[in-house]
Amino acid sequence: MKTVLITGASSGIGKAFAELFARKNDRVILASRNEKLNRIARQLWDQYGITALTIPVDLAQRAGPVLLHERLKELKIEIDVLINNAGSGSFGLLHEQDASAELEMLQVNVQSLSHLMMLFLPGMVQRGSGYVLNVGSTTSFYACPLSANYSASKAFVLSLTEAVANELQGTGVTVTALCPGATQTDFFRRSRMDGQKIADSKTLMRPQIVAEIGYAALMKKKTFVVPGLQNRLLTQAPRFFPRKFVTRITRSVLERKQQ
Question: What span, in angstroms and rounded, lies between the C-alpha atoms of 14 and 5?
């Protein structure tokens, strides 16, 4: 039985991961700033008979990762699997964005994700075993106008994952980046993108499928995985087309639907 810490576990892909590990009778720890955590824990008990520990934490605050790590130390809980799923997005021209909101997003997507790795990896390496899964995006592979900071933050996630995966060779600890495309979550609503063409796509993947693919890649110790053939093809676009052309295409996808 593994002890699994999942950030951003109150909905979407994070919730799907919680259900997946619960089905496997692993010990699940749910961390989020969302008040729905206790309800998710009750659902896991009702469905799978496991007691999930909930830890409210705001990873948009710089102290968030340390507070989470210290709480687990107080409880004498060692983490075998870290699912770095917490994240947020934004939409609009960068020069028109609210700077404080953008910086909060970067704190969650970049700084807190990296900080949690730095806090939990030493224990894993010392024990000679452990898994980390970082949730990136297909935008980890190309720039996205109208979502500039978000796509840049996800490029960071992939780059960090690949570098650290190499550093950890021979330690028994592996790091995997899960890079999904558009998924059936409330991401678009929270990012004010529910009016975008992409949010109306008929090809949105279910979060449960994304989590299953991520889990399989994690257990196979893959460095990264992109769920779905169409998404894998999209990530190869910068290899075959000029980068300026790719950014024009991604902008057209993110533009609002015509009324």
Answer: 10
3-254 — its CATH code? 3.40.50.720
The active-site residue, picked from 48, 131, 142, 150, is: 150
Residue 68 three-state SS: helix
Hey, what's the torsion of the CAs at 140, 11, 252, 238, to 10 degrees? 20
> Where does residue 67 rank: exposed (0-12), middle (13-18), buried (19+ CB within 10 A)?
middle
What are 217-246's pLDDT values in tens digits?
Answer: 999 999 999 998 888 888 787 777 777 877
- The Cα–Cα gap between 6 and 194 comes to 26
142 flagged as catalytic: no
Residue 96: which residues within 8 A CB-CB, separation 6 or more?
none
Q: Per-residue pLDDT tens for 10-66?
A: 889 999 999 999 999 999 999 998 778 999 999 999 999 998 999 999 999 999 999
